[in-house]
Amino acid sequence: MSELDFTPDEMMTIAAARALKNTDVCFVGIGAPSAACNIARLTHAPDVTLIYESGTIGTAPSALPLSIGDGELSDTAVTTVSVPEMFRYWLQGGRVTVGFLGAAQIDRFGNINTTIIGDYDAPKTRLPGGGGAPEIASSCGEIFITLKQSKRSMVEKIDFFTSFGHGDGGDHRARLGLTTKGPTLMVTDLAVWKADPETSEFTVVSLHPGVTRDMVQETCGWTVRFADEVSETPRPTETELSTLRDLRARTKAAHSGANKGDAA
Amino acid sequence: MANFLPLSEAVAQNLKSGDMVAFEGFTHLIPHASAHEAIRQNVKDLTLVRMTPDVIYDQLIGIGAVRKLIFSYAGNPGVGLLRRLRDAVENGWPNRIEIEEHSHAAMANAYEAGAAGLPFAMFRGYKGAELARVNPNIRTVTCPFTGEELAAVPAIRPDVTFIHAQKADRKGNVLIEGIVGVQKEAVLAAKRAVVTVEDLVDDLHAHPNACVLPSWTVSAISVVPGGAHPSYAHGYYPRDNASYIAWDKIAADRETFLDWMKQNVLDASPEDFAARTKHLRSAA
């Protein structure tokens, strides 16, 4: 804990949570997005609809699920549908306003790679693959992305286009016939970025408290663009911080509970 | 009509080397006991299908039972990568495997097409996604009414699908509750289907719209309490997240993996699953 009294990771989760509206229907990716979406639900957006790709619609877990299909997601959901129905009626049907994704590797136009590092046929590292992401990226009204900054993950050129952001930038989405907005917001542990309305390139619009422009550039693999006016991200409120810390504590207890763990 | 059989006989009668097989389950109700039985019976050369290959597919691949994998997300959700799968893909240990990779939307649609008796599935997807470049089974069709170009993938028609469910009644009708995933489609798409269940009951007490597989859609049923562990059976026992976390270390090293497989799979039996879930049941 720094003298700021909150960690960069906490600032990232809280800043990401603030982006969701009470009226949003959000397709939740696992990991960092899941924490942000549930903080939104537990603070300013109690009626936000959270959807996990396992088929749970309107779920409200007390702890963060380790997987996308833990039982509590179904227990607390408005309804649980089959996976084909989830992808056909709800996602493809255009009923989801925001897709919230993480990224193993991302470029300045919000194109994401979670498939491979290296060559597809002889990969250096085989990553899990796209799962729902290719169609989340194209079917949701817009895409929010959250990840921790590093030169390894924020790169000039991604190794594989798992899900399409803005391609080469500009109107590339429209040229492919995509009618949704694509990535509009990226929240890292250092800054809030928005896609430029003309170039579609992610541009820093606010720096988290205590963060400098150099810190953002040093942990990013491309030359960072800053908006004409860069503000400071509002600090976490006491409510936001305590809600996040309570959620993390409940999650830790839930994941280590029932631990005999010898036979998988 | 479903035959009630011990799991060893259900697997022996329905799974052969060289088959295309799906052990389906979307986090919930993953048929671990059936996959372990398949490993004990030393079936080889399998084409494995699943949207979300996780620990059991890591085990089947690491033990050398697999020729090809058709999938859309291969990981240990919330924990990390599948280390035995990586070793096979990156280093060819214990053998190289062929990969056919899709998105979830494609796989879900492909199972549904298989269940519906259609040759292919059609959906709005893969726009700008590079999988279409590396997977020749991702193609396009043009809507005859609007001219819109849509993605097309072949239907999935496994030789056999294995699933785990909560209950069967004595006639062999099967009830699945909670996160139902793609299991109904995977069973109806397959030539044969084997179901392990937690419980055998007189009456399913199923809601009229519940997910029920009638007895005549299932080839064999085996009663295997705990048969999804470390996945879970809603209403019976929760997901053993600690075991999923522990798997990451076990799978990281070839020798540790093989020792673990000998002790927990090759020298074990379907009856062991009940004991593995005993400590979880009060928490369900």
Task: Describe this protein's structure.
The complex is a heterodimer of chains A (about 260) and B (about 280). Helix content of chain A is about 30%, strand content about 20%. Chain A is an alpha/beta fold and about 260 residues long. Chain A has one domain: 3-Layer(aba) Sandwich (Glutaconate Coenzyme A-transferase), CATH 3.40.1080.10. In chain A, α7 links the parallel β13 (about 200-205) and β14 (about 225-230). Chain A has a ten-stranded mixed sheet, sandwiched between helices. A two-stranded antiparallel ribbon of chain A has the order 6-7. A two-stranded antiparallel sheet of chain A has the order 8-9. Chain B folds into two domains: about 5-100 and about 155-260, Glutaconate Coenzyme A-transferase, CATH 3.40.1080; about 105-110 and about 120-155, no CATH class. Chain B has helices spanning about 5-15, 30-40, 55-60, 85-90, 105-115, 130-135, 185-190, 240-250, 255-265, 270-280; strands spanning about 5, 20-25, 45-50, 65-70, 100, 120-125, 140, 150-155, 160-170, 175, 190-200, 210-215, 220-225. In chain B, strands 1, 2, 3, 4, 5, 9, 10, 11, 12 and 13 form a ten-stranded mixed sheet that branches. In chain B, β7 (about 140) and β8 (about 150-155) form a beta hairpin. The two termini of chain B are about 30 Å apart. At the A-B interface, α3, α4, β9, α5 and α8 of A face α4, α5, α8 and α10 of B.
